[in-house]
Amino acid sequence: MLWLKEGDKIRCELCARRCLIPEGKEGFCKVRINKNNTLYTKNYGKIVSMDIDPIEKKPLFHFYPGSQTLSISSIGCNFKCQFCINWEISQTDKITGKTYSPEDIVKIANDKGIKIIAYTYTEPTISFEFAYRVSRIAKRYNIKNVFVTNGYITSGAIKKIAKYLDAVTVDFKASGNPEFYKKYMAVPDVRPIFDALKSFNKHRVFIEISNLIVPGIGDKPEDNHKLAEWIIENLDSSVPYHLLGFTPCYHMTNVPPTSLEILEDFVTDALDVGLRYSYVGNIWGSRFENTYCYNCGQSVIERTGIFVNAINLEGNRCPNCGFAINVVRD
Ligand code: SF4
């Protein structure tokens, strides 16, 4: 899906890299290959990890809170993050995994009574064709589909999948700082991520945003401030926003974990800017794990880490003052 012939090469239109791929060669992701002037994907249906996770792990805090997801992934990514926690499956050239059909995945979710399939762990854009087919079938069974994505996806790809895609978490690092993306992630331009967010919003896909704060090299308060302002100006002040702690990993074991203090400072600033729901993630035990009513401050969803302890809502309204919270529930 999503490619064009351009002279004797192929232009891939799936992710924002828009690779121009000569005959016999692969794109940057090493998953899509030009064979005889046709673009093929090498990881179709090859599932390398499958698990049942709370939706809060994605993180999605406002989309069916307390639900389980069937979480799946295939090999591949269009980024090269030096600190990837899933680098064994995102950064390898070797396509492995057990082969499933789209119907198999939906059947597994359905048999287990799971109502949400999450395309996660690696970049779901790079498994687009399979995700597209699974999500189309899942819809028929009233199963929701969510992408946990870096947001480096074209508007054409979003348009194609939007009617089957219910929610996304778009995952920023270092608050989207362009130099950080170039230096530590091999991403030349961050603007397509912001375009993708606008496009998801236009297509009414439910959005949450996360932001990984990397101590010393990706923790500028002004970048976090700018990102929070951008969300309010271009999306909505009720978009949930997660500040995530960094874990030393892969090629960046020399960088320490993020302190709770920094994350709480960044959450506080996002709330001061005007974002209504901002959270600490990857470090448990913060007061910013709970959802508070924006109007009266009542605690409406209580969590410990990725586990929901209590939901105190009437539908999606605060039981104290009746204010509508941006939460999707049955
Ligand atoms: S998905 Fe992205 S990285 Fe892979 S070939 Fe297409 S444009 Fe290149």
What is the CATH-assigned architecture of the largest domain? Alpha-Beta Barrel
Please give the share of residues in helix. 10-25%
And the CATH topology of the largest domain? Answer: TIM Barrel
Q: Output the structural class.
A: alpha/beta
CATH-level-4 superfamily name of the largest domain? Aldolase class I
Strand content: 15-25%
Uncertain spans, ≥5 residues at pLDDT below 50?
A: none
> What's the CATH class of the largest domain, please?
Alpha Beta
What would the principal axes of the Cα set say about the shape? globular
Task: Tell me the domain tally.
Answer: 2
Count of β-strands: 18
Strand arrangement in the largest pleated sheet: 7-8-10-11-12-13-14-15
